[in-house]
Every structure is written in structure tokens, then in C-alpha cells.
């Protein structure tokens, strides 16, 4: 029941919702039904068919229209007298400056990506407006409250980085289906259909001393006049047969592993069958409607079926043929896309043939697509629960009821019949470069690295600044903006290509650089430390950024590389990463308030008796006792091992 006071606070409030997707639709409905009367919504997207199963304010007839506008219209139908202002725009647009944010009493995020979340966090800090942040991944979800100077900001805790795999696991010693998917998607698909000039480790194997990369490169080129059937067979025999034989020749590798089995096309499909495979005809196909599908062509209907080796091989040849015949023009420019049916068919088949060779369980196209596309299916109920919790926290914030603020986590497995875990918010992290102005430390070889490296790899990629300005003392080294004159633009462009020590105002060990983003009203200092040598494998950028990410527990923590934002840069170029899915509502781990890559399964355990039912009374214990365990299952799902990251040794003060 809403009290009189609460109703007054609700009625007088002006709120901004960012995101009108899965969480956003639920949130707008709940806000309207709770009595909110002045709601602004920003969403940059238009409605897609795939949104309709859970974004219930939208209908099929709305496909292609602005989410923000359609959501407004849908809610006005049952709450005609309230004011809803939609903006079909990117929240990062310069229109939404600090002054825009200042007009709101509270900002409510229903976003699906780190970049936008960080941007809103910074603007809320600059405008001193409370932010309620949220996320869901399948059955998991969380709502967190961020009040400037009182609680942690969204960026006080570093976010986990995507899981990466060593290159040799992918190229030589896969042991899980996910390894085969990464191989098929990032190596084979990229090699055959992607940019030919891109680095590709397909033939780089620690075990492979015998075949030169030139030899291997030639294999992927289609020879003049070579028939598609022959070409397909050559590729198949090379990657599933010859390459495996070469790998097998290194006995050391297989001492403690199961030896893979080379697979040659002749043993699976007679050449005649390869040539007759499918009903595709070059002339017919040229007029056929898109999208083309190898499954359709071969009469395989169910994406849930697990194909055998022969069926996978047929799909392999058929999808390769369809790419060459039907989508010839795209070859050289393709990157894997989970919504590209033919690409998914090719990757599923190639991954399954490889899995078969390595004795790994085969998977259906449906499962393979989920793994390759990093898909965790959204659960509408989770979004509804999270939206309800956002409104509960918003009402507390509007009443300034700081003692009652809770960060609430929606768990997958109830513990003691509890599905929701409330935790008191924490004080701001004193070493957070975003809200506590703590300087960062950058180790870099100032004679080798260029200003461009710092701008692109550190300021933009790591610090999330999109309109950066770099200063050394009062000397401006770089800035962007529409109002710059030609000379300045040329000057800054020239600076980008200079090594740090060769800049007009030389940057050397001991220099303090100031970097700013005027749109985000964020400024921070970076202490430069000159370092001669970097580990090419572990520090491929030739730079190491540290500062706010470091805490004693995290250094001890085996999983620091996952929780530690700084080490994201260290994700070696010689490792494959399963990208964080940025298009889900992304849940955050209860304990570290870091967004977790979707496609991850997490399991709660060891919630102690004294932490239930009132978990909020013992947040430190909760943080240390509730661990997220890696489930190293064989169904190919990628999993993150996440510990609390702030257990022993890290003192975090509860908000009082
Ligand atoms: N920078 C941004 N500015 C404005 N809106 C954004 C921005 N980034 C993301 N959004 C919006 O946040 C919403 C997130 O919703 P949701 O997670 O349900 O994603 P979706 O794109 O609707 O669904 P799916 O990814 O599953 O297809 C989307 O509607 C998206 O347009
Ligand atoms: Zn912070």
C-alpha cells in the first residue's frame, strides 16, 4: 500500500527512463500504474519482431517504429492523463547534457550495454541526480542505487571482462564445444568469408612445426577454374584431416589428452554425393529469395535436431556452396552474425565436425546458435520483478529515505525459499576515478607508444570517453569538437602520430596527463610511468593501466582477470574472447556489482543461515559468503567464475 507521503512524492516527481526494451516496457507500465505523472523516456531503437515476446507494449504492427514513442502511446491508452515524453535518440547525443539531466528527480536505467550505462552514470554524477541501475540475464537480475557522494557509483567496481581462451586451445586442443564454436566462427568462417588481410591464427599451432603458413594460406584460396565441390572438399580435408594429422605428429601434446581423429571427406561422403549435395542450382539460386539456407536446401527441418557427422558434413558443403554462389559479393566482408541463418548453419556444421574429431558432444543448430551468438534467453518475469524493484527504490529515493535503500539481486536458485537478496548499498570507492577523482597510473614506453595509442586504447576503450581532450599541464595535446579550426585539427592529427616523448610538450615518466570528456563532464589524471619492456603475450598493447581496479582482495583473487577492468587490456591478442553480449539486459553479479557477460551460467551457494532472511543486515558477510561458482559443464555454455572480489581484506563501508 502506498502511503500519503509516498503518493505525494510520486506525483511530484519528474523521472527519466533510459531504455524502453525488456525492462523498460515493464518499468513504464509499473511507473504509470504506481501514480507517476511526469515520465521522460529515451530509447534509440525501433521495434523488432524478436522484441514482441516480452516487450508487451509493442505489437506486430509497430515493427519498425520508435520504441520510446510506441511505449508512450501504449501506456497513455490506460493512463491518458499523465505526461510521457519520448525521445527516439541515443542517450549519448550531445542534446542530453548535464542540464538536461538536472531537471529530473531520479534517473532509471533499463539499458543493455556498458557504454551507455557508464555514460548515464557520469552524467548523473555531474548533474547530482540519483541513478537507479538495473539489469537482467535470464533468471538473474539486479537493481542498484547510486547517489553521488553517498553510495558507490556504477563504476566504483570494475566490470568483468569477456572470457578469453588461449589460442592453442582453440587451434589445437579443444576440449569443449565452445572451443569448436570459437574456432569455426572466429577462425574458419573469418578465413573463408571475412577480410583476407586480417590476422588469422587458423594455421598457427604450437604443435605445427611442419607446415608453413604459406602452404596453409594457399589452401583457402579458390584456384582458377576449381569447381565448388572440389574446393569444398579441399578445405574440409585440410582443416579436419590434414591439420589434425599434423597436430597428432607432436606426441607431447597428446600425452595427457585424448588424441583427435582426422576426418576426410571421402570417409564421410562420397565425392559424387558432395557434388549432388542440396538442390541448389547456380541459375536458380541467383533469383531465389533471401535468406538462403543450407538446411532448407537439404530438407533438414528442425533446428533442435542434433545432426550426425554425415549431416553436418553435408551442411558444411552446402552452406559453403551457397555462400559462393548466392552471396559471392559479400565474401571478403563478412563477419559472423547470429541472425545470419547461413552463417549459423556453416558454423554449427564446422564446429560439429571438429567436435566429432576431438570426441566432444555434438550440438543442435539451436544450441550452437545460442553459444555462438552468446544468447541467454530473456525471461519476461525477471524483467517484471526488476521493474517493480526499480520503482520501490525510486520511491525511497524520492523520499530521501537513505536508510532503506537496497541493492537487490534476483537469484536463479532460491535459497531458504528466498529469490530476492537485498543488500545495503556501499559507500563510494575512494579509488574510483569516476566519482572520487583518484588518479590512474599508466605504465608505457614513452619512446615507443604514440599519443594515438593512449587516445584510442586507453581514453576511449578503457575509460569510456567518447569526446576526449588530453592535456599536459596547460598544453592541449588533443581534443575533438566541431568548433576547432583547420590548423588545430591538423596539429592534433600530427600529435596523434608522435611518440609520447616526442610531443611538443613531451610526455615522460612522472608526467601527469589530464584527460577529460566534456560531454560527460568527467576529468581524471593519469600518472605516467615509463617502462621499457612489455610482455607481448600478456600486455599486447604495450601499456598497463591501473588504479581504481586494484584492491588487496582482487590481487589475491584468482579471478582478478575477470573482475579487473584494467586487465581487460591484457586480454592477449593471442587469446579468443567470447564477447560480452551487449544486447541483453545484462545482470550484474550480486557481490561485485560488475556486469557479467551474458551467456554465463551462475550458481549461488553457501548462503549462510544467518544471512537469511535479512541479508541486508550483513552485507560484508553476504559478499564473502555468496560465491558464484564456475559450472564447467559440457554443454558448451560459457561460464564465468566470479568470487565476491571483496571478501577478506577489503573493508567496504556500509551506507549509514
Ligand atoms: N545508448 C543508448 N541510447 C538509448 N537507448 C539505448 C542505448 N543503448 C541501448 N538502448 C536501449 O536499451 C534497450 C535495452 O532493451 P533490451 O535489453 O530489452 O534490448 P533489445 O534490443 O530490446 O532486445 P534484444 O537485444 O534481446 O533484441 C533497447 O531498447 C535499446 O534501444
Ligand atoms: Zn565510483
Brief summary of the model shown:
The protein has 656 residues and is of the alpha/beta class. Helix content is 34%, strand content 15%.
Structure explained in plain terms:
The strands form four sheets. The protein has an eight-stranded mixed sheet, with helices on both faces. The chain has a six-stranded mixed sheet with strand order 12-11-13-14-10-15. A two-stranded antiparallel ribbon has the order 7-16. Helices cover 34% and strands 15% of the residues. The protein starts with a helix and ends in a 27-residue tail after the last strand. The protein folds into three domains: 4-160 and 377-423, Rossmann fold, CATH 3.40.50.720; 177-359, Arc Repressor Mutant, subunit A; 439-546, Structural Genomics Hypothetical 15.5 Kd Protein In mrcA-pckA Intergenic Region, Chain A. The protein contains 22 helices and 18 strands. The radius of gyration is 27 Å and the shape is globular. The protein has 656 residues and is α/β, with parallel strands linked by helices. The structure holds adenosine-5'-triphosphate and zinc ion. Residues 630-640 have a biased composition (Acidic residues). Residues 442-534 form the Ubiquitin/SUMO-activating enzyme ubiquitin-like domain. Heterodimer.
Amino acid at each position: 500500500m502506498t502511503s500519503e507521503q509516498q503518493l505525494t512524492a510520486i506525483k511530484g516527481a519528474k523521472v527519466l527512463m533510459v531504455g524502453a526494451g525488456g525492462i523498460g516496457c515493464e518499468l513504464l507500465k509499473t511507473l504509470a500504474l504506481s501514480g507517476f505523472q511526469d515520465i521522460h523516456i529515451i530509447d534509440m531503437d525501433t521495434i523488432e519482431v524478436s522484441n514482441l515476446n516480452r516487450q508487451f507494449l509493442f505489437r506486430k504492427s509497430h515493427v519498425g517504429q520508435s520504441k520510446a514513442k510506441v511505449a508512450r502511446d501504449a501506456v497513455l491508452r490506460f493512463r491518458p492523463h499523465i505526461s510521457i515524453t519520448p525521445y527516439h535518440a541515443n542517450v549519448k547525443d550531445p542534446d542530453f547534457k548535464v542540464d538536461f539531466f538536472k531537471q529530473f528527480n531520479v534517473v532509471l536505467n533499463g539499458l543493455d550495454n556498458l557504454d551507455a550505462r557508464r555514460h548515464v552514470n557520469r552524467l548523473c554524477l555531474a548533474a547530482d541526480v540519483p541513478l537507479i541501475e538495473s539489469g537482467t540475464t535470464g533468471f538473474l537480475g539486479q537493481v542498484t542505487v547510486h547517489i553521488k557522494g553517498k553510495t558507490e557509483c556504477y563504476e566504483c567496481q570494475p566490470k568483468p571482462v569477456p572470457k578469453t581462451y588461449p589460442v592453442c586451445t582453440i587451434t589445437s586442443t579443444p576440449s569443449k564445444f565452445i572451443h569448436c564454436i570459437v574456432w569455426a566462427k572466429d577462425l574458419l568462417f573469418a578465413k573463408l568469408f571475412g577480410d583476407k588481410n586480417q590476422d588469422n591464427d587458423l594455421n598457427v599451432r604450437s604443435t605445427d612445426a611442419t607446415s608453413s603458413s604459406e602452404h596453409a594460406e594457399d589452401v583457402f584460396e579458390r584456384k582458377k577454374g576449381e569447381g565448388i565441390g572440389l574446393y569444398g572438399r579441399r578445405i574440409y580435408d585440410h582443416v579436419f584431416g590434414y591439420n589434425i594429422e599434423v597436430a597428432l605428429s607432436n606426441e607431447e601434446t597428446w600425452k595427457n589428452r585424448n588424441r583427435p581423429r582426422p576426418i576426410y571427406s571421402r570417409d564421410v561422403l562420397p565425392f559424387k554425393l558432395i557434388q549432388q549435395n542440396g538442390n541448389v542450382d547456380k541459375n536458380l539460386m541467383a533469383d531465389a529469395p533471401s535468406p538462403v539456407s543450407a538446411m532448407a536446401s537439404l530438407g533438414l527441418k528442425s533446428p533442435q535436431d542434433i545432426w550426425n557427422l554425415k549431416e553436418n558434413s553435408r551442411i558444411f558443403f552446402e552452406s559453403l556452396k551457397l555462400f559462393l554462389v548466392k552471396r559471392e559479393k559479400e565474401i571478403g566482408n563478412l563477419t559472423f552474425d547470429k541472425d545470419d541463418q547461413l552463417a549459423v548453419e556453416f558454423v554449427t556444421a564446422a564446429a560439429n565436425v571438429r567436435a566429432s574429431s576431438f570426441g566432444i558432444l555434438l550440438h543442435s543448430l539451436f544450441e550452437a546458435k545460442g553459444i555462438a551468438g552468446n544468447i541467454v534467453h530473456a525471461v519476461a518475469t525477471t524483467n517484471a520483478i526488476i521493474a517493480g524493484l526499480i520503482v520501490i527504490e525510486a520511491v525511497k529515493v524520492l523520499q530521501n529515505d537513505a536508510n532503506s535503500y537496497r541493492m537487490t539481486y534476483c537469484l536463479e536458485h532460491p535459497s531458504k525459499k528466498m529469490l530476492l537478496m537485498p543488500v545495503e548499498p556501499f559507500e563510494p570507492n575512494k579509488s574510483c576515478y569516476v566519482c572520487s577523482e583518484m588518479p590512474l597510473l599508466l605504465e608505457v614506453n614513452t619512446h615507443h607508444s604514440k599519443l594515438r595509442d593512449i587516445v584510442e586504447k586507453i581514453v576511449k576503450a578503457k575509460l569510456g570517453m567518447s569526446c576526449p581532450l588530453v592535456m599536459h599541464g596547460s598544453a592541449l595535446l588533443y581534443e575533438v569538437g566541431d568548433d576547432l579550426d583547420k590548423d588545430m585539427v591538423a596539429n592534433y592529427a600530427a600529435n596523434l602520430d608522435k611518440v609520447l616523448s616526442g610531443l611538443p610538450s613531451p610526455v615522460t615518466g612522472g608526467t601527469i596527463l589530464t584527460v577529460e570528456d566534456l560531454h560527460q563532464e568527467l576529468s581524471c589524471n593519469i600518472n605516467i610511468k615509463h617502462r621499457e619492456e612489455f610482455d607481448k603475450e600478456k600486455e599486447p598493447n604495450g601499456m598497463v593501466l591501473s588504479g581504481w581496479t586494484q584492491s588487496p582482495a582482487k590481487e589475491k583473487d584468482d579471478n582478478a582477470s575477470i573482475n579487473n577492468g584494467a586487465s581487460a587490456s591484457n586480454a592477449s591478442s593471442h587469446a579468443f574472447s567470447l564477447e560480452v553480449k551487449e544486447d541483453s539486459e545484462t545482470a550484474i553479479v550480486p557481490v561485485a556489482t560488475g556486469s557479467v557477460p551474458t551467456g554465463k551460467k551462475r550458481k549461488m551457494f553457501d548462503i549462510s543461515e544467518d544471512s537469511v532472511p535479512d541479508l541486508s543486515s550483513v552485507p560484508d558477510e553476504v559478499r564473502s559468503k555468496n560465491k558464484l561458482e564456475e559450472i564447467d559443464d559440457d554443454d558448451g555454455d560459457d561460464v564465468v567464475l566470479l568470487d565476491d572480489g571483496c571478501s577478506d581484506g577489503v573493508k567496504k563501508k556500509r551506507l549509514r
